[in-house]
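Protein Entry — a single chain follows
Next Lines — sequence and tokenised fold
***
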Amino acid sequence: MLMASGANYGWRKSLPHISGVIIGFCLMVMLVGLGVEQLFVQYPQLNTLLRVFSISFLLYLAWRVLRSHNSGNQETATGQPITFFQAMAFQWVNPKAWTIALTALGMAATPADQHGILMVVLVIGVFNAVSANAWVCFGQQIVRLLSTDRNRRVFNYCVAGGLVASIVPILLEA
């Protein structure tokens, strides 16, 4: 998604998306570290609700990517990049984010170890910032290959297809 945002809108217009990913994921890791995942143990129906939201949001994002039309000029691209709050919210319905958060915290911290939780959040925040910016920059570079409407459509269809394909593990897990 960040690569598609970089390709379709450029780095500057992707900043809210980048910021939402970084802050949203760090907040999620911190709250998971403090024990919020216990809600899913106490209320298993929340797992089903999370799956429904995850699938719905992934389909919505795929639709957004399909609707983004870049004329080759990132300053005049139609459609809107993902907003700060949408990127932040996505972290909470992203199964990969939950897996990373639980794994990192399980290896490095316990709910009673607030210093350990803070260290995990800081390390993840730094790596997330570098990674998110790298994906957007990669998208900006790949835009050179997307010099025709056909190539841009194929690119957007591939990204949207990847988002839709990421639903399969969620469905198989149910």
Remarks:
- The mean pLDDT is 87.
- The CA atoms of residues 48 and 130 lie 32 Å apart.
- The longest helix spans residues 2-33.
- Residues 1-65+79-173 form one domain.
